[in-house]
Write a structure and sequence with these properties.
The protein is 25% helix and 26% strand. The chain is built from twelve helices and 17 strands. With 364 residues, it is an alpha/beta fold.
């Protein structure tokens, strides 16, 4: 099956690609040859060097959300070096370090798109598993080459290492965007971060760079040293410790909740000050219980946030470059990806797997 085969009048030769795909809901990934569309006049083609593994990749390859179209080539934390640009491309040139996150398309005409919120466009096209304009299905970054409209390509500053920056294109923007939108980026504010995984550790790094006081809230007491000594959190709460949670009631201006498992919101709402904001960026599979009275008593808000638009993603990457922020990663080759998926399902990673795609391609 060939993906993204739209022919371009500028270059009529599709780009041959080698990736790893899941063919069924077992989720097992194996080598997969396919073709991307030819480089169009507004397209950027780049050699993929690294691709992060997001937890949503695991959900998708196993069709746990019921939306997967097989074969699926996952990956939406994709970085590499430009090898070709179309004649109408203005932002990039051959040799540039670039990245593509969760989106490769949107209508670019709706109210959300006009407000640089392509991530909320009703017709947004995801980097993999979505129907492209020509009817083909998009394939992601577990592959050696990527073709994307320049609008959806992010420029990576020279001082950021590509392997560590890859997860910022999903995990990074997922926590950066709500910090900005909900006004939780002001120096001196007190932020709680629930969960210390791929998203949580990025939230701590961004919040500290913004000058916030940060408290990590976790079910795991053994993460305290890592949170405070390595990531720079100011305080640590064990969410199952009633006394610790009680001592922090009414102390936080906001909380970024990164947990994707079903969990209680009431204790978290209790940690908020008057006008405090609890922002969900995780996506539990079952509904969470939310009582009205704790919100009324203090005019508190429970909100949500989904990645970010392209302009804000570039802003986030530039902020990361200024403050030397990258993800803590475990670098793997493609032949380890199935083991990595198994480990990811058990939360056995600090804090993000990143595939060394270029060296994997050489070895294969």
């Amino acid at each position: 099956m060939l993906g993204e085969m739209a022919m371009s009048p500028e270059n009529e030769h599709p780009v041959k690609a080698l990736g790893w795909a899941a063919r069924d809901c077992s989720g097992h990934l194996s080598p997969f040859k396919f073709s991307r569309r030819a480089t169009g006049e507004k397209d950027v083609t780049f050699k993929v060097l690294y691709c992060g593994i997001c937890h949503s990749d695991l959900h998708n390859v196993k069709n746990e959300w019921g939306t997967t179209s097989y074969p699926v080539v996952p990956g939406h934390e994709i970085v590499g070096v430009v090898t070709e640009v179309g004649t109408k491309v203005t932002k990039f040139k051959v040799g540039d370090k670039v990245g593509v996150g969760c989106l490769v398309g949107s209508c670019q005409s709706c109210a959300n798109c006009k407000d640089d919120l392509e991530n909320y466009c009703p017709k947004m096209i995801l980097s993999y598993g979505s129907k492209f304009y020509d009817g083909t299905i998009t394939y992601g970054g577990y592959s050696d080459v990527m073709v994307s409209d320049e609008h959806f390509v992010i420029k990576i500053p020279a001082n950021l290492p590509l392997d560590g920056v890859a997860p910022l294109l999903c995990a990074g923007i997922t926590v950066y965007s709500p910090l900005k939108y909900y006004g939780l980026d002001k120096a001196g504010l007190h932020l709680g971060v629930v969960g210390l995984g791929g998203l949580g550790h990025m939230a701590v790094k961004f919040a500290k760079a913004m000058g916030l006081k940060v408290t990590v809230i976790s079910t795991s007491p053994n993460k305290k040293k890592e949170a405070m000594d390595h990531l720079g959190a100011d305080e640590f709460l064990v969410s199952r410790n009633t006394e610790e949670m009680q001592s922090a009631i009414g102390t936080m201006d906001g909380i970024i909740d990164t947990v994707s498992a079903v969990h209680a919101l009431l204790p978290l709402i209790g940690l908020l000050k008057t006008h405090g904001k609890l922002v969900l960026v995780g996506a539990p599979e079952k509904p969470l219980e939310l009582l009205a009275m704790p919100l009324l008593m203090g005019r508190k808000i429970v909100g949500g946030s989904l990645i970010g638009g392209i302009k804000e993603t570039q802003e986030m990457i530039d902020f990361a470059a200024k403050h030397d922020i990258v993800s803590d990663i475990e670098l793997i080759t493609m032949d380890y990806v199935n083991t990595a998926m198994e480990r990811l399902s058990k939360a056995d990673v600090k804090y993000r797997f990143v595939i060394d795609v270029a060296n994997s391609s050489k070895s294969s």
